[in-house]
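Deadline looming. Please check this record:
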Amino acid sequence: MGETTVKAIGEMTVLVTGASGGIGAAIAERFASVGMNVVLHYMKSHEAANEAARRCMEKGSGRIMTVSADLRSREQIQRMRDKLASHELLPDILVNNAGISHYGLLSDVTEDIWDEVMAINLKGTFLCTQEMMPHMISQRYGRIINVSSIWGLSGASCEVLYSTTKGGVNAFTKALAKELAPSGVTVNAVAPGAVQTTMLEHLDQSELQMLEDEIPAGRLAQPDEISSLVYFLALPESGYINGQIISPNGGWLT
């Protein structure tokens, strides 16, 4: 068995996928605030990613980099990995946050829509994890945190496709945690309830109010409240938390 390498917090590198806005950007900024090296992945939102990177630089002293890749493509993920390796920024922590939502009746879901949402939400998590985890295994230390959803636990009407992908992420998390535990790598998922991000932009004000009324806390979550949990799971002292799906949801699902 190899020797475990646990770096100081300020020497660690985190890769956050889908980090151009919302929960992803909040996660990146949280890690940056403790001086960690932060790599912000995006696919198309170049300006938004650069703005998030600027906020990270203002908050911390670590190295900040943005990288673009289509997570549906192994080739592009491998190029991203090689770029990080050339800058000595292979991640000690991987946050699989990139994802897209889909709202509508299952009867209206086409095969193309099914394939696209599956590819980004589930296949992208698989490919990015598979390409980044060898570095963690080799140093016998790492943290993989998958951003799931409350709908992956309970399911949601008119969000069958999205719920299915997040349920897959949860199963992926539990199984991989068992596989990587002997290598010193933990795998957990954060499954937020309703969060104040653009993913809820399909709802009008009355629908948002109805949603808030359903939540015992009486409000939506803020991205910072999700990023704080992700950060906690990434800490060295969280090493005995493994294979867990933790849902910060204001008491909505217990």
The two ends are 40 Å apart (CA to CA). The beta strands are 13-16, 37-42, 64-68, 93-96, 142-147, 185-190, 245-246. The mean pLDDT is 95. Residues 111-139 form the longest helix (29 residues).
